[in-house]
Automatic annotation (TrEMBL), chain A:
Gene3D superfamilies xrefs: 2.20.28.160
Entries under PANTHER family matching the protein: LYSINE BIOSYNTHESIS PROTEIN-RELATED, LYSINE BIOSYNTHESIS PROTEIN-RELATED-RELATED
Pfam family, one: Zn_ribbon_LysW
InterPro entries linked: LysW
Organism in which the protein naturally occurs: Halomarina rubra
Protein name: Lysine biosynthesis protein LysW
TrEMBL record, chain B:
Localization, UniProt: Cytoplasm
Pathway(s) of this molecule: Amino-acid biosynthesis; L-arginine biosynthesis; Amino-acid biosynthesis; L-lysine biosynthesis via AAA pathway; L-lysine from L-alpha-aminoadipate (Thermus route): step 2/5
Domain spans labelled Aspartate/glutamate/uridylate kinase: 1-268
Residues where substrate binds: 82, 189
Short name of one Pfam family: AA_kinase
Descriptive protein name: Putative [LysW]-aminoadipate/[LysW]-glutamate kinase
Region listing for Disordered, in residue ranges: 283-305
SUPFAM superfamilies: Carbamate kinase-like (SSF53633)
Organism: Halomarina rubra
GO annotation, cellular component aspect: cytoplasm
């Protein structure tokens, strides 16, 4: 369990949480990026246009 | 009128027919060696052509020959694209502006066309922001991957291309593009179809996207079901519904080209006889500005009055 950086509510973490994974805050609906797992650190996930190279 | 020809990099595509056809368009009198025909090409009244090429399969082949695995990721909308880490970017720069661009320029020189090879880095031809983070889907989870060397072309130096064309040269353009990351410029990967679309838009050109199929098929199981002309929003909706897999990227590039100012986009077969001329005469799937929204058409009509 950790807290949402957007609204402060508790966020339940999956057992196999991974760095880079995007989680949804069940309270405010924010998309949260897992910046690290030990300890777990979350930040609001950036909005990114879909893009790819050649 | 300028024609932008995108030559695909798929294994099934042989560029020889397209290069010969480009030569015939640039100057129908071009023959023999390049040295003997350069002056003829300059004085000819042929078409002005810009060639754009990709080469993702050659990048994969080179990576594999070096004992390294290409990495592809899936975006949330289902598009599969390359993840270009620093090492892949090095190989990418070796292969596209290196071997592939050189080979195409030599091929055109042998066909009597005074071709000049350029990557998007040269002269700042293709510029835009770098995108180092991408959203991907892995193991049914959405994730953010960082460290990607990719970008989207937002600016084309059309003056550079116009200068070359006016001098009788045929530009052969490829990615990488030049991208700004913080205060630093660097070379990054960019989709060559979309780069060709940006070039065609900047030059108000006709765009021919050559690939290894005869056009967009209404029925994937029926090779004779090529969608012919797309010139209304309803026809455009049918086109986007029909396009699957890699063809969605072609249709997206067609859309961006028309939004940028291109006068037409044709998706055609690179292995057909005289594939560029055939596409310009309507063989394949031709998308015209009327395919985009009616609102935009109204605005354009008002602006032209």
């Amino acid at each position: 369990m950790t807290t949402c950086p957007e609204c402060g509510a508790d966020v339940t973490l999956p057992d196999d949480v991974e760095t880079g994974e995007i989680l949804d805050c069940a309270t405010c609906g924010a998309e949260l990026e897992v910046l690290s797992t030990e300890p777990v650190e979350l930040d609001v996930a950036p909005e990114l246009e879909e893009d790819w190279g050649e | 009128m300028v024609t932008v020809v995108k030559i695909g990099g798929a294994r099934a595509v042989d560029p020889a027919g397209a290069l010969a056809d480009v030569a015939s368009l640039v100057d129908s009198s071009a023959e023999g060696t390049s040295a003997g025909s350069q002056n003829a090409a300059r004085s000819g009244d042929g078409e002005q052509v810009v060639v754009v090429h990709g080469g993702s399969t050659a990048v994969d082949d080179t990576l594999e020959s070096l004992g390294e695995d290409p990495e592809y990721v899936e975006t949330p909308s289902g598009v599969v694209g390359r993840f270009t880490d620093e090492r892949t970017m090095e190989v990418f720069s070796m292969v596209l502006p290196g071997k592939l661009n050189t080979d195409l320029v030599v091929g055109l020189q042998n066909a009597g066309v005074n071709a000049v090879g350029l990557s998007g880095v040269d002269g700042g031809l293709l510029k835009g922001p770098r995108k180092s983070a991408v959203r991907v889907v892995e193991d049914d989870k959405q994730k953010i991957r960082r460290g990607d060397h990719s970008g989207t072309v937002k600016q084309v130096d059309s003056d550079l291309l116009d200068t070359l064309l006016a001098g009788g040269y045929t530009p052969v353009v490829t990615v990488p593009m030049l991208a700004k990351d913080s205060e630093q410029w660097l070379a990054v990967n960019s989709d060559a179809d979309r780069a060709a679309a940006a070039v065609a838009g900047a030059l108000d050109a006709d765009l021919v996207l050559l690939t290894d199929v005869p056009g967009v098929l209404a029925d994937l199981d029926d090779p004779d079901s090529v969608i012919d002309v797309v010139d209304t929003p309803t026809e455009y909706e049918s086109l986007t519904d029909a396009a699957e897999g890699f063809m969605t990227r072609k249709v997206m590039a067609a859309t961006e080209a028309l939004e940028g100012g291109a006068t037409s986009v044709t998706i055609g077969d690179a292995n057909a006889d005289a594939p560029v001329s055939a596409a310009l005469e309507g063989t394949g799937t031709t998308v015209l500005p009327g395919a985009l929204s009616e609102e935009r058409d109204t605005e354009t009509a008002e602006a032209e009055q």
